[in-house]
């Protein structure tokens, strides 16, 4: 999947000190392939990778984000941007009723959406009317009446028993009815076909011309993959639309459609449909979609928390120490462990972030109660021992063990891990002290 591919790309950047030209090129190439494989349209891919490349090249070297995290952050922000930034409001008519027409293939979720929109508009204080202009399928009118009842919203339907009605006439009379009865928003449900065809497109265009909609919402099944772009393009050419509703986002669609449709048609995604029930409906949030495409939960929140948890000043302090006389003490080691303890509750989230792979492995073996024991051990040492553990001989080890309620084996283990940590800190200092500090020797 797209997310898997991106994850693999990001984890290959693990442990790098900074983003090199070659890293960026390789990463961008991989992102391009991953997006193409995920059925994202070529122009969308091109726009996206160009933007990521430019931003990665000019990225500030961050003291608290490693290169993988930096790329994740850039990709995430760029996804939000290309998905439309902030979502816009529905365009309401200056003189009611506002007319919203729904268009899209059969099965896209138009009728379901009509009910959701009706219910949502009612909550917003509007008086909506649903209009049944899909007379193609025998049960279509009935289906709209059912969702209207569920939503507690009135439905305008053609009179029964007159044979095949005229969907254009129904739409026109529906809007007239709304004007008379003071409904302020009209949602016109229309017919679709399984595939795009000229007759259906013409019918939709005729309905459009009859009611002059303030919004034409193109309903797109997020799960149709590569066909999303051609379908969207066909509707853009045949009827035109002002906004997009992505439906079936509760499935495992990863959002390739969202990325493409926005870039190819320029129309913003306004709403997301996430299930069959009325309440499975929300304003479209580009930031959530970006996270979904990356499949990593709320990446930004995660990064912010990681940044907070490891206080930058302390990091700089530690790096300076290493660059100077190499004076890394047990007290510093303890401090690192305490930092890691703060990250403990984030363990689950860190597992979702590929860039945090190294830290994740360490956290897996990390036991919070261990920090408490290490605190006790370090506190049982003299200040001289803390800054130079080499002076701790055998008899001191058993004294410290007794004083801290631990064993000599544990003291030995701690001192061994401290030595490993010290070596690791030296190499970190040599590389400029950048990146999240790992838990040494875990
Ligand atoms: P229309 O032909 O465009 O009017 O599509 P419908 O509204 O009749 O929906 C087609 C099918 O998709 C129905 O079985 C709906 O219950 C289902 N459906 C619509 N929207 C969603 C959604 O967001 N998620 C899921 N899981 N199913 C949906
Ligand atoms: Mg329908």
Automatic annotation (TrEMBL):
Keyword Cell cycle recorded: no
Domain SRP54-type proteins GTP-binding: 268-281
Residues the record lists as binding GTP: 104-111, 189-193, 247-250
One annotated GO biological process: SRP-dependent cotranslational protein targeting to membrane
Name of the gene this protein is made from: ffh
Portion held of the full protein: 4 to 445 of 535
GO cellular component, one term: signal recognition particle
Localization (cell): Cytoplasm
Organism expressing this protein natively: Ruania alba
Record-listed E.C. numbers: 3.6.5.4
Catalyzed chemical reaction(s): GTP + H2O = GDP + phosphate + H(+)
Keywords: Cytoplasm, GTP-binding, Hydrolase, Nucleotide-binding, Ribonucleoprotein, RNA-binding, Signal recognition particle
Entry keyword annotation includes Nucleus: no
Entry's transmembrane regions: none
Subunit structure comment from the entry: Part of the signal recognition particle protein translocation system, which is composed of SRP and FtsY.
Name of this protein: Signal recognition particle protein
Domain notes: Composed of three domains: the N-terminal N domain, which is responsible for interactions with the ribosome, the central G domain, which binds GTP, and the C-terminal M domain, which binds the RNA and the signal sequence of the RNC.
């Amino acid at each position: 999947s797209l997310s898997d591919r991106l994850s693999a790309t990001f984890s290959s950047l693990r442990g790098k000190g900074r983003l090199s030209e070659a890293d960026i090129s390789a990463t961008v190439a991989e992102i391009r392939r991953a997006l193409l494989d995920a059925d994202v349209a070529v122009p969308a891919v091109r726009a996206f990778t160009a933007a990521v490349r430019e931003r990665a090249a000019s990225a500030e070297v961050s003291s608290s984000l490693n290169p993988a995290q930096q790329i994740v952050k850039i990709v995430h922000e760029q996804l939000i941007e290309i998905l439309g930034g902030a979502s816009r409001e529905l365009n309401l008519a200056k003189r009611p009723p506002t007319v919203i027409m729904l268009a899209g293939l059969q099965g896209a979720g138009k009728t379901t959406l009509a009910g959701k929109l009706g219910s949502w508009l009612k909550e917003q204080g509007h008086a909506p009317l649903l209009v049944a202009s899909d007379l193609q399928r025998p049960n279509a009118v009935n289906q709209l009446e059912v969702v209207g009842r569920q939503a507690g919203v009135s439905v305008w339907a053609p009179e029964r028993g007159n044979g095949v009605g005229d969907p254009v006439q129904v739409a026109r009379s529906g809007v007239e009815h709304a004007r008379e009865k003071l409904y302020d928003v009209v949602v016109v449900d229309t017919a679709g076909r399984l595939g795009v065809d000229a007759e259906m497109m013409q019918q939709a265009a005729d309905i459009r011309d009859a009611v002059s909609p303030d919004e034409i919402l193109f309903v797109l099944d997020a799960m149709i993959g590569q066909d999303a772009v051609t379908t969207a393009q066909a509707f853009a050419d045949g009827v035109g639309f002002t906004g997009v509703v992505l439906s079936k986002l509760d499935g495992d669609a990863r959002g390739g459609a969202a990325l493409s449709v926005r870039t190819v048609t320029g129309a913003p995604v306004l709403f997301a449909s996430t299930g069959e029930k009325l309440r499975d409906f929300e304003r479209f949030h580009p930031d959530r979609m970006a996270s979904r495409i990356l499949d990593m939960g709320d990446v930004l929140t995660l990064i912010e928390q990681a940044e907070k948890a490891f206080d930058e000043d302390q990091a700089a302090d530690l790096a300076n120490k290493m660059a100077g006389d190499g004076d890394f003490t047990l007290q510093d080691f303890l401090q690192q462990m305490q930092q890691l303890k703060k990250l403990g509750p984030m363990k689950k989230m860190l597992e979702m972030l590929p860039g945090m792979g190294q830290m994740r492995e360490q956290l897996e073996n990390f036991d919070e109660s261990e920090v408490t024991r290490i605190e006790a051990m370090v506190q049982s040492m003299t200040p001289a021992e803390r800054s130079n553990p080499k002076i701790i001989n055998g008899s001191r080890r058993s004294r410290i063990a007794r004083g801290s309620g631990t064993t000599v084996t544990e003291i030995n283990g701690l001192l061994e891990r401290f030595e490993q940590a010290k070596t690791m800190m030296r190499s970190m200092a040599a590389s400029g002290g950048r990146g999240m500090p790992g838990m040494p020797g875990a």
